[in-house]
Amino acid sequence: MPNKVYRKILHMGIQNEMEYRTNYWIQLVSFFVPMMTQFFLWLAIFQSSGQGTIVGYTFQEMLIYIIMAAVTGKLVAAGFEYEIAGDIKEGGLGKFLVQPLNYFAYRILKFLGAKAVQSILVIVFAAVVLIWLRIGLHVPVGWDSALRYLIALPGALLLNFVIYYALSGIAFWLTESTGLFYTLSLIIYIASGSVFPLTIFGETIAKLLGMLPFSYIVFFPVNMITGKLTPTEAVTGIGMQWLWIVVILLVARWVWSSGVRRYVAVGG
């Protein structure tokens, strides 16, 4: 019986994504705008500097980075933290506490269901663009690099989910958490390498940011496809992804256990 319920939740995530097709296509188109802005920005920087390599990337490698960073950011994006805050604030979480239904399982299945639809479209788009870069602009994109990127992608997706699930527990202590979520999302967006490669911040800060879990959401998987990582660094990075997932899952469990005790005390 529980398995049947969880299958329905997964299906519900897919249906929700398909139901709002117009909104989804608008969002999909919107992520082209920052990508094109980055393209012209880096084109101007490379042309004006006259250098072949900037912040450790050639122009061709930077092209791959800005495209795949935008694709990866879209694929792993959360957004459910606002729904969770609403469940906590408005009492919707209560029904999950009295039913034999795990709230974490409900959230991750709904999240994965939505991502299943998005992933097909975005990965097809990425494949077309990479083929165009390889054939049209002679950008060296290897199929082995693309395969390594796909291997790193599930870890990036789950890591981003558990980070935002843990953060959403803040709503147990704050009546209004929208502003905090927005600020934290912006910090994570920059620290993950979604805007620029982390090397733009200089060697010291890049190393510090590389020690945080956020760099394994975008910066690490994208560098799998730019060819910046040795085989040893690639294997180590995948291990770090899953280590961070376990660590943050434990943090999330502690936050939610503490929060639910507080939620029951206030509600009761």
From TrEMBL:
Task: Give the UniProt keywords, A-Z.
Answer: Membrane, Transmembrane, Transmembrane helix
Q: What InterPro entries does UniProt report for this protein, alphabetically?
A: ABC-2_transporter-like
The record's annotation in Pfam families points to: ABC2_membrane_6 (PF06182)
Q: Does the keyword Isomerase apply?
A: no
Membrane-spanning ranges = 24-46, 62-80, 116-137, 149-174, 180-201, 208-226, 238-256
Q: Which domain of life is it from?
A: Bacteria
Tell me if Membrane is a UniProt keyword of this record: yes
Q: Which PANTHER family match?
A: SLR1174 PROTEIN (PTHR36832:SF1), SLR1174 PROTEIN-RELATED (PTHR36832)
**Protein name according to UniProt:** ABC-2 family transporter protein
